[in-house]
Design goal:
Elements lengths: L1 E5 L7 E4 L1 E2 L6 E10 L2 H8 L8 E2 L3 E9 L11 E4 L9 H4 L7 H10 L9 E3 L2 E5 L9 E5 L3 E3 L15 H12 L7 E5 L3 H13 L3 E6 L2 H9 L4 E4 L5 H8 L4 E6 L4 H9 L1 E9 L13 H6 L3 E4 L7 H13 L9 E5 L4 H10 L4 E4 L4
Parallel strand pairs: 5-9, 12-13, 12-15, 13-14, 15-16, 16-17, 18-19
Antiparallel strand pairs: 1-2, 1-5, 3-8, 4-6, 4-10, 4-19, 6-7, 7-11, 8-9
Helix pairs in contact: 4-5
């Protein structure tokens, strides 16, 4: 099949032929309908994160089940699925506690080693073993994933757009509604209005907050944030974000979501809080970076810093819920799609994403 292969830091991703083995026990093969291009893929290509290579990129996607491994009974060939980049084991202490986003098997084996649950890969090229990215590798015509990483969804939803639910939308909406449990009437700011940040904006709207302030350096992204539910917008390319937020909400904000993950934006999120406020770190920075804050001020103001991995969602429960919200008109996915491109254009899509002009480009193998 065709796929996007990243050989090693310092190289460029390439569109090439790779081999995909049949699904093994408790695995399924999925023919990809669409894959979203995300900053997490960009972090890998930029060398910000140390992952196992060579690797087939991509972790956000949707498709149709095309083959079943031994023992699979809860999915059928032809099912429409959204892929989850936390294919939880279901048996570790975190899974049993209802927190599959913290699955210890994913954290210790799947993500760092670039393999599936049994510690092996289904991907190869010319006899060389290739690695899976976050148990998915959706920049390909087909994938083999653990059955827990393929979430069955309604057949009446446009499957290409649903790719976004697997990462950006679950992460952003979940950060608001699950991680932070934002309460109605609260004041919220979202720093960064890419796919995840705009999903945070929509999550805040769904939560019934009184004010949503969007912060970004791109006017077109701020305009979209206002259409999706933000009440105010700050162009931080020409003003200090914290000063502008303080002017708008002098008592400080109840919640600030850092949807970028730079040290500067994390520090801005903390600095803009009011009494009892929570800064929620949603965007992911390069490995090894450290933010600074005043712990005394944090304690005296009874403030909190919350990390949000995958929006604290339970994929099997929350991905179908998000699809329902989309079909009911309460959640806008279509506005998050900047373009649909053939799989071969993934390297160019990553360049566009790095330039800050794109929201979500969908890679569609059938184009």
């Amino acid at each position: 099949m065709k796929a996007i292969l990243f050989e090693a830091p310092g190289s460029d991703p390439i569109f090439t032929d790779v081999e995909l083995a049949k699904p093994q026990s408790s695995e399924v093969e999925v023919t990809i309908t669409a894959a979203g291009v995300c900053h997490s893929d960009l972090h890998v290509v930029s060398g910000d994160w140390d992952i196992a290579t060579p690797v087939v990129l991509g972790h956000e996607g949707s498709g149709i089940v095309s083959a079943l491994g031994p023992g699979v009974t809860d999915l059928s060939i032809g099912d429409h699925v959204v892929l989850s980049w936390v294919p939880s084991c279901g048996t570790c202490r975190y899974c049993l506690a209802g927190r599959p986003a913290q699955c210890s098997l994913v954290a210790s084996v799947v993500a760092p080693l670039g393999v599936l649950h049994d510690g092996t890969s289904r991907l190869s090229k010319d006899g060389r073993t290739l690695h899976h990215y976050l148990g998915v590798s959706s920049f390909a015509e087909r994938v083999v994933v653990p059955v827990s990483g393929a979430i069955r969804v309604r057949m009446d939803a446009p499957l290409d757009v649903l790719a976004l639910v697997g990462c950006a939308v679950a992460t952003g909406v979940g950060a608001v509604t699950k991680t932070a449990n934002v309460q109605p009437g609260s004041t919220v700011a979202v720093i960064g209005c890419g796919g995840v940040g705009l999903s945070c904006v929509q999550g805040a709207r769904l939560a019934g907050v009184s004010r949503i302030i969007a912060v970004d350096i791109m006017p077109e992204k701020l305009e979209l944030a206002l259409r999706l539910g933000a009440t105010d917008a700050i162009d931080s390319s020409s003003t200090d974000a914290v000063a502008a937020l303080t002017e708008m909400v002098p008592e400080g904000l109840d919640y600030v979501f850092d949807a970028i993950g730079k040290i500067s934006t994390t520090e801005q999120a903390i600095a803009a809080l009011g009494l009892g406020g929570s800064a929620v770190i949603v965007g992911l920075p390069p490995t090894g970076q450290h933010a600074r804050f005043d712990p005394l001020a944090l304690a005296e103001a009874d403030q909190r810093i919350l990390g949000s991995n995958y929006g604290s969602v339970v994929p099997q429960r929350d991905i179908p819920w998000l699809v329902d919200l989309y079909l009911s008109g309460d959640l806008d996915l279509d506005s998050l799609v900047s373009a649909r491109r053939p799989l071969s254009e993934a390297p160019a899509a990553l360049v566009d994403l790095a330039a800050g002009h794109a929201l979500r480009h969908l890679l569609v193998p059938s184009i």
